[in-house]
Specification:
- It is found in: Cell membrane.
- It comes from Streptomyces incanus.
- Keywords: Cell membrane, Membrane, Transmembrane, Transmembrane helix, Transport.
- This is Carbohydrate ABC transporter permease.
- It is a multi-pass membrane protein.
- By secondary structure, the protein is an all-alpha fold.
- It is 66% helix and 1% strand.
- It contains 14 helices and two strands.
- A two-stranded antiparallel sheet has the order 1-2.
- Strand 1 and strand 2 form a beta hairpin.
- It is flat.
- The two termini are 30 Å apart.
- The mean pLDDT is 83.
């Protein structure tokens, strides 16, 4: 008996089919996981010549890590954590509040607001660089400068069109009968939002949490505009700076790249269940 696969093909059985699947999985693993494995091994291999790199080193060492710490990699890593922590917290807050207003409330111009939010996702960072630097140098209303501070890297990422759209579309699928029942029980607006709507949005929170973390963590243009001193560099920006330094060995760069990759992987592993539920929540009806 043959089973239908997701593509509508018949799944073959037998020893040759198992060999073919094993070969296919091996190739896919080498393509997707191979570079990450090579990076991890290279970061802890005591070599200074990239042409001598091997996946099977004679020994592992922490020499590259020690030299990277001497170069201030941990300080850059701390700056990245501060920026991604503050930026992601603000981004989630703005996204759930904006999504709730756009999905659950009726007001004139809501469609235009969604179009504007969508339009912000179409503009590349290079186009926004000049106006953003002007705004950060003289923040409207407050008339303060955020240039040269980590706050200047946090505030611009507080609102992201992708996260707002995800929360809006997810909240639209929540039955309005739940709100009406809560109102009959005497619940106020804030209580309905906090105890009824928000708990049902955990899958969507997992999606915007992972994508938001990755987006903020990988920021290069924004720290480049804001930072005025190397002590304010985030890890991605510091890696570019160290790469142009001839005195920094390939091992230090590999350690920095490994440390830059690790938090994103850990964030996905921590939120993968909610992430997958969020992606598949609308796939099955009924």
């Amino acid at each position: 008996m043959r089973n239908e696969t997701a593509l509508g093909l018949q799944e073959a059985r037998g020893p040759w089919a198992r060999v073919a699947r094993f070969a296919l999985y091996t190739v896919l693993f080498a393509i997707f996981a191979g570079p990450l494995l090579a990076l991890m091994i290279g970061a802890f291999t005591p070599t200074v010549d990239p042409t001598q790199f091997t996946l099977f080193p004679d020994r592992l060492s922490l020499d590259n890590l020690e030299r990277a710490i001497d170069r201030g990699v941990l300080d850059y890593l701390l700056n990245s954590f501060i920026v991604v922590g503050g930026g992601l917290a603000l981004q989630v807050l703005v996204s759930v509040l904006a999504g709730y207003a756009l999905a659950r409330k009726r007001f004139r111009g809501s469609a235009a607001v969604l179009v504007v939010v969508l339009a912000t996702m179409m503009l590349p960072e290079e186009v926004l660089a000049v106006p953003l630097s002007v705004l950060l140098a003289d923040l409207p209303v407050l008339h303060i400068s955020l240039v040269g501070s980590l706050a200047g890297m946090i505030v611009p990422v507080a609102a992201w069109g992708f996260s707002i759209l995800v929360m809006t579309e997810f909240m639209k699928e929540i039955p309005k009968e739940l709100e009406e029942s809560a109102k009959l029980d005497g619940a106020g607006e804030f209580r309905i939002f906090w105890q009824v709507v928000l708990p049902l949005c955990r899958p969507a929170l997992g999606v915007i949490g992972i994508f938001g973390f990755t987006m903020i963590w990988d920021q290069y243009m924004l720290p480049l505009l804001v930072a005025t001193d190397p002590a304010q560099y985030t890890l991605p920006l510091a890696l570019r700076s160290m790469r142009s330094d001839d005195q920094v060995g390939i091992g230090v760069l590999l350690v920095g790249a490994f440390l830059a990759m690790l938090p994103s992987v850990l964030a996905f592993l921590a939120l993968q269940r909610s992430f997958i539920r969020g992606l598949t929540s609308g796939a099955v009806k009924g």
